[in-house]
Amino acid sequence: MDQSAENGFGHKEPSTPGSMMTGFTDARSPALEGLDSHSDKFQLDAFNRARASGGGAKMGRFLNFGRSPKIAETPGTPDNLQLDDLLLFSEDSLPVSLLKHNPDNQGRAVKMFQSVLQYMGVHGEMLGAMQALELAQKLLHQGLKRVELRDELYMQLVKQTRGNPNPSARTKAWQLFYLTAATMPPSKDFMGLVSEYVHTSAQDQEELPEIRELAGKTWQAMRRTAKAGQRRTLPDMQEIDALFKGTKQNAVVYFLDETFEELQYDASTTVMEAVEQLAGQIKLENYQTFSLFGVAKSKGGEPGQPVTDEHTLVDDNRFIADLMYEFKQQKAKEGSNSKLLFKKRMFRETDETITEPQFVNLSYIQAQHDYLQGQYPVIKEDAAQMCALQMQAEYGPTLANDAEGMEAALEKYMVKQILNSRPRQEWMADVSSRYRALSQFSKDDARIQYLRIIRSLPYGNSIFFTVKRIEDPIGLLPPKLILGINKRGVHFFRPVPKEYLHSAELRDIMQFGSSSQAVFFKMRVAGVLHIFQFESKQGEDICMALQTHINDIMMKRYSKAKAAQEGGDGGGGGGGGGGDFGPKYQAHVGELQRQLDEARAALEAKEQQLAELSEERQVMADELSMLKGMGGGGGGGAGGAGSAAAELAALNLSGGDAAAMKAVEQRINAVLAEKAAAEAKLARVEAAHAEQMSSIKAAGGGAAVGAAAAAVTAAAVKEKETKINELIEELGNKEMLLSEAQAQLESTKNQRKELDDLREMKEDVERREKAQAEVIAQQAKRLEELDSLYRDEALMRKKIFNQMEDMKGKIRVYCRVRPILQMEKDRGQVEAIVIPDELTIGLNWKGTKKEWSFDSVFGPTTHQDRVFEDTKHLIQSAVDGFNVCIFAYGQTGSGKTFTIYGNDKLPGLTPRGVTELYKVMDRDSGKASFRISCYLLELYCDDLSDLLSDHKKGEKMHKANRLEIKKDPKGLVTVPGATVVDNISSSRELMDVIEMGLSRRRVSSTEMNRESSRSHLIITICVESTNLQTQTVARGKLSFVDLAGSERVKKSGSVGEQLKEAQAINKSLAALGNVIAALATEQGHIPYRDHKLTMLMSDSIGGTAKTLMFVNVSPVDSNLDETQNSLQYATRVSCIRNDVSKHENSSEMLRLKRQIDHWKEQAGLPPHKREYVDLEEVADHKQNGDQ
């Protein structure tokens, strides 16, 4: 094989397979900025220790790669590497991983580095093209499969590209670097370090051009993957080969009109880049609202309906290579062809202002496609018009005389459901007439008009999502429906056949949100807020579309408000600064501004018209002056008018008060009077002038007289013309002032009226807001009341349910949380448990909030009285003849003994139960007689002991009898041979007996508890009651069980004898857990005989007792593991149901029993063995009750 040929990566290999490292001097070692901040993530010390012991050589021999490297023989290498030295090129295998990992990943990391060396050909073993591609793919597989190894791979590549003296090996390492960056980014902890190193290498002018090019590509690829994330699929070898050679792969992207374009992509091309590339190919400038969609055949359609294409929006950050791989897998699995589609993601408000031909054409194609798919239900008139417009846009006017072509176009451009609504002939006549009326329209005009009709529909330009109804408060929506989202709001459709149902405008949608499986809307319907919920996997897309339209509308309103504000500021009008009355006020002010602009324009037109009239009057006056003779004139009127004009001009018309308006009216009347006087005077002057002219014509004379008279007449005429001009000009000024004053008066009146309206509107708005605030406050108060009632009702319902379950034999479980201790506070431990209500307890377990529900939950501040209050009803049950068991479970130091027994100041359940027992007996002493007996047992290190055996009066200390655990015919557990103190007459006497036994119980101090119980304690009180009337005898048993706490030896610090005790305790609790798990999961076999503890409690758990369990937990965060286990343990116990029965014997049964005892005596049985005859061994049980 020719080693100088191309290796499949577009690079030539050196002719010599194994070049020696010492032959090169161009090693580059860019500085690693910020490396010290990552020192805690590297295992430098372990690396140096393993290197000193030759771990790398052993690993190399174990992996069987060519030769075993010798780490210590590299000249100039220090004994202990520093962190910067660790990330320098090495031709030897790693003794351990560079970063800290678990043992499994450390081995994988070492193998990865060996693969990198093999790919680089460091040891002279040049790989073939296929072998190299396969090795690179395996490295990618490790990084993609195990995220924790990704940073390890990046650090190994930094190491092998930094300070590498061999250009060929360095190039190979950068190839791997480029491939890795194009497939997956480093973690955020190492992103800064790696990107800085790559960027520095790309800008290093002293580096080889080929390596600088690879570093630049690596930098660009890392930028893309940092934004888009890692590849979802492993690149195949063809894709890797194309990436190395710099070639592109091709994919076909379709449009809605069945045309297509070829898309070129590589391993790191994203959907966003593909959209930009396609927009450049089709010369589309406004492509921001376009995206790629995956098209596949829809699944689960209605029976009998045609299979349609399902369009799924593709995330902008998805990789094209991943999409193509998924399409191939789908084709191989289901046999269906999927493809990529380029279309608008959604129609937006700004689309209406875009006139780019390609944009309009694509929008038209998409709107036409949606309409023909039946997405836009329309009436018949709109359907006919839209059909005609489509025909004009496609064919122009060429179908006017082609009946067959028009019929085919009718079938093509009309929705089938609408087409079948009336005969074809009527459709042809209607559409053809409309089509001929559009003959003057161009194709582009027809497309624009078509889009306008679509936009005019309430649900026009919507994007549609198929959803399923989950919650419909108004009960009007079908189980399956289609949601349409556009700029107007949300629209609801029935899917088959598609029928418009209802719309909700954007202003009515108060809130919306989504999850991975559903979407909800909180919107106003008929003035009432309702919450609608729908099942959909496109909830995020629905919310994104809705939020986009809301943002567009808000931006549009903001732009209008800003433009109006800038326009108002530019006007510079003075005036008082009124308050801001909201958007209605702003709109009204804008309308007034528009009317003011129109009035100004009309005033300018009137001024122009007045100027033209003045010029016309001047011409007429000039013609009149040629015919007039001499005449006199009076300037008094003109002077008066001028004075009035001056006064009127000096009048301040800017005010709005009544006095100023009255003054303006008076001045206007004065000006009118002056105008009439001036006109009368002008008439008199003109009449006198006419008389003079007539007298001149009548008096003929000689030439000299005529010449002199003509000269005098000319002078007089000239003087009169001057006066006439002055009067005409003054009259025009008066008229102008009059019109201005009238306009200003009218404007002032209008402004005053508008001001009154605005004040009234403000008062109305304030009144409504006040009323609305009162209504909201009342509703909030009502909601709080309803919420409180709902919570009380929920608690009551749960309590009643628990009582029902208790009647069925369910084991009741109470949870109690002890207070945090001072020594725990001193250690910095914090409380990590929350109690939302009296039935629920919660904690944060490994970042997840978890909650458990029990029959009752007592917090750290709950008093002993409150705990006993929920327990004392069981004392009555024991008196009535039931078997009652109360036991406490939890880790060591969680408060079990305090709950069961308490102390002198705060007595627990046992002292309070004894007191309550004798209270009940005293209360019922007139109905029955009672007999109380008691015995105490201790289970220590699997040894059952009698705590009362050495305390018999009058007897010396003796060795305790061997105790056996039996069951009587009623199923009650009994311990023959145990010391029973009988005929206890008072609560004080019974407590003395219990305290005598407790004094012998084994306790010791551990790191978790100063007085830790080292054994299980069972206090049993037997109650025998005889009904005085019926002579019926009821035998009840009341047991208090204080279990030893489960403990972790590491935390409790148990050693020696304490260690053996802890092991025995954990063993017994494990056996109890097995019994509980078997009962909770209804297994066939219940292992009671696995331990003496389970035998003692066999009638309490899964037996015939009324059982109450206290699970005691610690509140601090350091005990969360034990707390979690205890709560799960208690949850399993709550699933167990006992077969509760009352132990009662009638007088007849007692007579028969006495007779049996007589025959036992006659048979010669000793008294202490007579009771043993009827006892049975405690055996394992099956769930059906068989042993």
UniProtKB/TrEMBL annotation:
It holds the Pfam family IRS. One of its GO terms (molecular function) is microtubule motor activity. Residues 1-25, 564-584, 1164-1187 are annotated as: Disordered. It is found in: Cytoplasm. The keyword Coiled coil applies. PROSITE patterns: FERM_3, KINESIN_MOTOR_1, KINESIN_MOTOR_2, MYTH4. Its main location: cytoplasm. ATP binds at residues 890-897. Keywords: ATP-binding, Coiled coil, Cytoplasm, Motor protein, Nucleotide-binding. GO terms for biological process: microtubule-based movement. Residues 567-581 have a biased composition (Gly residues). Residues 810-1136 form the Kinesin motor domain. One of its GO terms (cellular component) is cytoskeleton. Residues 1168-1187 have a biased composition (Basic and acidic residues). Residues 89-244 form the MyTH4 domain. Residues 249-558 form the FERM domain. Residues 589-623, 661-693, 717-775 form a coiled coil. Gene3D superfamilies: 1.20.80.10, 6.10.250.760, Kinesin motor domain, MyTH4 domain, Phosphatidylinositol 3-kinase Catalytic Subunit, Chain A, domain 1, Pleckstrin-homology domain (PH domain)/Phosphotyrosine-binding domain (PTB). Belongs to the TRAFAC class myosin-kinesin ATPase superfamily. Kinesin family. This is Kinesin-like calmodulin-binding protein. It comes from Chlorella vulgaris. The lineage of its organism: Eukaryota, Viridiplantae, Chlorophyta, core chlorophytes, Trebouxiophyceae.
